[in-house]
Amino acid sequence: MNQPPASPSVSVDDFTTDFISRLHNSRGVDLESASDNDLYSALAWTVRKHLIDRWLVTKRVQRENKAKTVAYLSAEYLLGAQLHNMLLASGLGTVARESMASLGLSFDWLAELEVEPGLGNGGLGRLAACFVDSLATLDIPATGYGIRYQHGIFRQTFVDGRQVEQPDNWLELGSPWEFPHPEASIVVHFGGHVEHTTDAEGNDLAAWKPAWNVLAVPYNYLVPGYGTQNVNSLRLWSARATQSFDLQIFNSGDYENAVRAQTYAENISQVLYPEDSTPQGKELRLQQQYFFVAASVQEMIGQVGTSLDELRTLPQRVVFQLNDTHPVIAIPEMMRLLVDVYGMEWDEAWGITRSVFNYTCHTLLPEALEVWSVDLLGRLLPRHLEIIYRINDDFVAEVRESHPGNELLVRRMSIIQEQPFRAVRMAHLATVGSTKVNGVAALHSELLKDKVLVDFSNLWPEKFTNVTNGVTPRRFVKIANPGLSSLIDEAIGTDWVKDLSQLSRLEPFADDAAFREQFRAVKAANKTRLVETLRKRDGIELADDAIFDVMVKRLHEYKRQMLKVLHVVTLYDKILRGELDPESMTPRVVIFGAKAAPGYLMAKEIIALINAVGATINADPRVKGALYVAFPANYNVTLAETLIPAADLSEQISLAGKEASGTGNMKFALNGALTIGTLDGANVEIRELVGDDNFFLFGLTEPEVATLQAKGYVPSAYYEANASLKNAIDLIASGAFSGGNRQTFEGIVSDLLWHDRFLVLADYQAYIEAQNVVESAYADQDAWAKSAILNVARSGFFSSDRSIRDYLDRIWHTPAVPVQ
Ligand code: GLS
User: Which helix (H) or strand (E) holds 241?
Assistant: First the structure.
């Protein structure tokens, strides 16, 4: 494996000496008595040591330069395992491996001991992790701000095929990758009331008298760039009580009440809300949001300086990117600091605030747009609510001035909704308070302008822009797919890891028979690797000579795992009916991976159905060798890194107009899977780039969906008119997958027939036909390999480095600061 310039001074012997001294000095053990965790921790510390000098220099250079910093505000970072990434950045992969071998330790075994930090739900959180990687790689001064959840995304288990959630106690054994700084804690206030007085000139002065507070304790994490000296920081805040014990209560003997305050405060960073693409209107969640942005904004301001002259330089010193609406309370917080705390005039403060914030919207589902009831917001953050009202008054006046008499428009655009309850619309607040608003794929940004935020884009067309998402090629190709990486290195050199557009130079190799042969060998080896992983991890036994048809993503009705299930059931049904000969079909292994939000009952039913269908099919000798369903529990970043490189077919089958972008779709294409997909999210751009011939398109387009829904969609009509669809649904309804119990999946069946909000039945026939095309295409293995190579060669656009360059050009305008 090609490595970037390593720290040349590190020999295997030095590394080993260091490792042993780590065991002694930091863990108080010797090699013989070391536990697994001792060994892993010592290894991690030995590696991270080689990045710390770079980190310190980076911080010094950025400070001395007064460099403009990107402050990425995100409630989620789905980081994945750290060790491999740190080894890649330090160039110590081979040294570490040889060093462990010299001690008789298996490096791979040690690496597997790491519990990945799952501080995010899905695409949105993983995107944040890719973005901080790319920012560091591009030498952009940047800090990722977020929450150090004590418990990340739940661990999914299946009991009788149903999802059961287990807490993810990732910090149980400590994390060797974090640097706590309790001395730099910041106090964050909540509750209370606001007192108003008037100064000598008759100006209103507001003083917030909060009722309680917590400490935000920062934990720093290294974010090393690839092939650069630059190392940025991720700063995650952990909540701690300001006074651990209320001494008075404690002395009076009420131990329980004394610790209650502490528990209450520390609850704030206890757990990640496991919702994805749906908001959680819970008080604790609003506390989390304010907690982390208040600490982050205060810290940034502290770096710039708090005199009025220094505060006026904020737009030259920092740009805040709001990752969805979760951190949007930062806008009124900035106003509060500038006006109430530092005494700036409102209008000047508003000008500065608007120029330092930008907002990324990640959804198209109206129900996913966050609102906070004014009752709750007023109780928790009374001064912020006042500020929001004033921002809204000024904004509404602006709308009235440009559209006199159009009160309907005013009501639609207002930051405050009146019905069904009075609440703050966070997306509106974000749009009003930001310089730029972006969507995350070309289609999404258009729909944002034309539908979700149409009134705003009419008022301020220049505010709206697009930045198509991307993924880091370091983690998702270089680390996850070493076989493909070496093949690419041999063909076009190693620069692609930092400049993914170079992949286009692979195109001619698609016509090279020897290269195609090697490419297929890599895919076959990746499949074998996955088979071994699933055997060890889940006790699943897969054949590796089948088409690997993969659908991994959060379980959500709009993503339409249900459509995939109907396809599987159709194949099964046709085999049972003798309409399909299992001997003559291409063996197919269908692999699902999906977590459902714990409160999302329909999603959990669909999980149970997938497991039930899998259990029945896998046990049926009539389909043995032809069709197999695998659903490993607890799909996470670590499993993704083995699964994606092994896939032949990537399922991206959401209803057009619902998936904002998707990023899994990009990872699959980059690893040489062909996509079967709708014209939704970034699929549109993937298809444009890889070419129509190398993409299996099906399904209604977004305008067709709108037309069909406007005219009145009747799913049962599709059921009645399509025999194979009817057979599949009837088979589910008959209890064939539920031990004869017709009630088990009745909810799913009746929802499909009478509601089917995401038009599964409308797209069924087109999907089945597209799968038939897949089946015949796969029969020509050589032609398939050519298409797969072209997918790789033409997917360079989907690097998160390119996304970050787009943010720099279109939104941030932040110069790089290379570190020597
Ligand atoms: C999401 C969208 O659903 C995805 O389509 C998108 O790729 C991702 C990152 O932009 O953001 N929005 C969300 O709430 N969760 C997501 O994964």
Answer: strand 231-241
B/e letters for 454-463, b = 16+ CB within 10 Å, e = fewer, are ebbbebeeeb
Cα(429) to centroid of ligand 1, in Å? 20
Q: Which atom of ligand 1 is nearest to the CA of 127?
A: 9
Ligand 1, residue 681: give the atom nearest the CA.
5
Q: Give distance in angstroms: CA of 404 to centre of ligand 1.
A: 37
User: Looking at ligand 1, which atom is closest to the CA of residue 440?
Assistant: 10
Check residue 3 and give its pLDDT: 42
Asked if residues 689 and 503 have their Cβ atoms less than 8 Å apart, the reply is: no
Mean pLDDT of 392-412: 98
CA angle 259, 260, 262 (to 5 degrees): 65
Query: Does the structural domain 66-81+116-468+805-812 have CATH classification 3.40.50.620?
Result: no
CA of residue 652 to ligand 1 center, whole Å: 13
- Beta-bridge partner residues of 283: none
Q: Is the pLDDT of residue 316 over 50?
A: yes
Tell me the pLDDT tens digit for each residue of 32-87.
999 999 999 999 999 999 999 999 999 999 999 999 999 999 999 999 999 999 99
d(CA 501, CA 482): 19
Is pLDDT at 6 greater than 60 in this prediction? no
Using most ligand atoms within 8 A of CB, pick from 78, 277, 685 the residue to mutate for ligand 1. 277
pTM, two decimals, is 0.97
CA–centroid distance, residue 665 to ligand 1 (Å): 12
Q: Separation of 25 CA from ligand 1 center, angstroms?
A: 44
Which residues in the chain are classed under CATH 3.40.50.2000?
66-81+116-468+805-812, 475-701+766-798
- For ligand 1, atom 14, the nearest C-alpha belongs to 277
Note the pLDDT of residue 1: 36
* 439 CA → ligand 1 middle, Å: 10
Q: CA 377, CA 371: separation in Å to the nearest integer?
A: 10
The strand pair at 674-677 and 649-652 is best described as parallel
ipTM: 0.99
Tell whether the model's pLDDT for residue 2 goes beyond 50. Answer: no
Mean pLDDT over 589-596 rounds to: 98
Is residue 378 within 8 A of residue 450, CB to CB? The reply is: no
152: number of CA atoms within 13 Å, CB side? 24
Residue 591 has what pLDDT? 98
Check if the beta carbon of residue 616 is closer than 8 Å to that of residue 533: no
In a 3-state reduction of DSSP, which class is residue 136?
Answer: helix
CB 40 within 8 A of CB 110: yes
Pocket of ligand 1 (CB under 6 A): 122-124, 127, 276-277, 362-363, 440, 469, 659-663, 681
pLDDT beyond 80 at 254? no
Q: Specify the ligand 1 atom closest to the Cα of 554.
A: 17
Which protein residue's CA is at the shortest distance from atom 12 of ligand 1? Answer: 362
Catalytically annotated residues? 362, 553-554, 559, 663, 667
Residue nearest to atom 11 of ligand 1 (CA): 124
Pocket test for ligand 1, best of 121, 661, 806 (most atoms within 8 A of CB): 661
Q: Which of ligand 1's atoms lies nearest the C-alpha of 324?
A: 14
Is residue 106 helix, strand or coil? Answer: coil
Return contacts of 26-31, CB within 8 angstroms, 24+ apart: 31/103
- Counting ligand 1 atoms within 8 A of each CB, the residue from 323, 440, 798 with the most, and so the one to mutate, is 440
Q: Per-residue pLDDT averaged across 245-272, rounded?
A: 78
pLDDT at 226: 98
How many Cβ atoms are within 10 Å of 602's Cβ, its own excluded? 16
pLDDT digits (tens, 9 = 90+) for 633-686: 999 999 999 999 999 999 999 999 999 999 999 999 999 999 999 999 999 999
Q: Which amino acid is at 74?
A: S
**φ, ψ for residue 165 (rounded to 5)?**
-95, 135
CATH class of 475-701+766-798: alpha beta
